[in-house]
Amino acid sequence: MDPEGFSGPEKIVKPLTPEALAAFKAAQERTGVVYISRIPPGMRPSKVRHLMSAHGEVGRVYLQQEDPKRAYLRRKYTATKKVHFTEGWVEFKDKKIARSVAEMLNAQPIGGKKGTRWRDDVWTMKYLPKFKWNMLTEQIAHEAAVHTAKLRVELSQSRQEQKDYLKNVELARILEKRVERKREKGEEMVLKTLPQAKKRRLEDGEGANKRKKLENDTDRQLNTVLGSIF
């Protein structure tokens, strides 16, 4: 998980006794998670924790940063340079409190003292029944792995396209030298041409075969990468 979007107590992990492990599992079963579909601009995890703590004991808070491309354009064309978050998850120690908080605050103004930054912003949140924090971490890890696999496949395709381009450039250079030598000897180099109908059939067949081969190679590479990850 992105440390920029995480807000939670930092603790040293120690081995648990069977009794402590049972108590920990029971505590996890009592927790509830609230999903916030929109984070007001400029609001950070610590502020979300502070606001939610007024309604009940909060465990962990995670806010998802905006898309890197969108963040780049925003920093380039606006005066706002700080990190923005798009959505978030808040874990309450008691799922009953989590449900009541979501029902009470959804579609309501954030409020606060007059003149505060987010006073007129509106909460958009929902309680997630039977949803636990480990499900969120697994989802984020899976999305990161899939994204990495796609990047590897795209890079592999890009390298192959570059090799093909350089090969064509080299062939064109060799052909140009041959034409130049023929011209120096006073000879004329004639390139054989195929009949138009036959040429079209060959191009269509070769194009279909190349497309099919590229799709098979792409699927095979993606399966190989995903297999190595999972």
Automatic annotation (TrEMBL):
Compositional bias of kind Basic and acidic residues: 201-218
A single GO molecular function term of this UniProt record: RNA binding
Gene Ontology terms describing biological process: endonucleolytic cleavage in 5'-ETS of tricistronic rRNA transcript (SSU-rRNA, 5.8S rRNA, LSU-rRNA); endonucleolytic cleavage in ITS1 to separate SSU-rRNA from 5.8S rRNA and LSU-rRNA from tricistronic rRNA transcript (SSU-rRNA, 5.8S rRNA, LSU-rRNA); endonucleolytic cleavage to generate mature 5'-end of SSU-rRNA from (SSU-rRNA, 5.8S rRNA, LSU-rRNA); small-subunit processome assembly
The organism's place on the tree of life at top rank: Eukaryota
Recorded family membership: Belongs to the ESF2/ABP1 family.
Gene3D superfamilies: 3.30.70.330
InterPro entries recorded: ABT1/Esf2, ABT1/ESF2_RRM, Nucleotide-bd_a/b_plait_sf, RBD_domain_sf
PANTHER family xref list: ACTIVATOR OF BASAL TRANSCRIPTION 1
Annotated region described as Disordered, given as residue ranges: 195-218
Main location: nucleus
Protein name stated in the entry: 18S rRNA factor 2
GO CC term (a single one): nucleolus
Cell location: Nucleus, Nucleolus
Keywords: Nucleus, RNA-binding
Keyword RNA-binding: yes
The species this protein was found in: Dendrothele bispora (strain CBS 962.96)
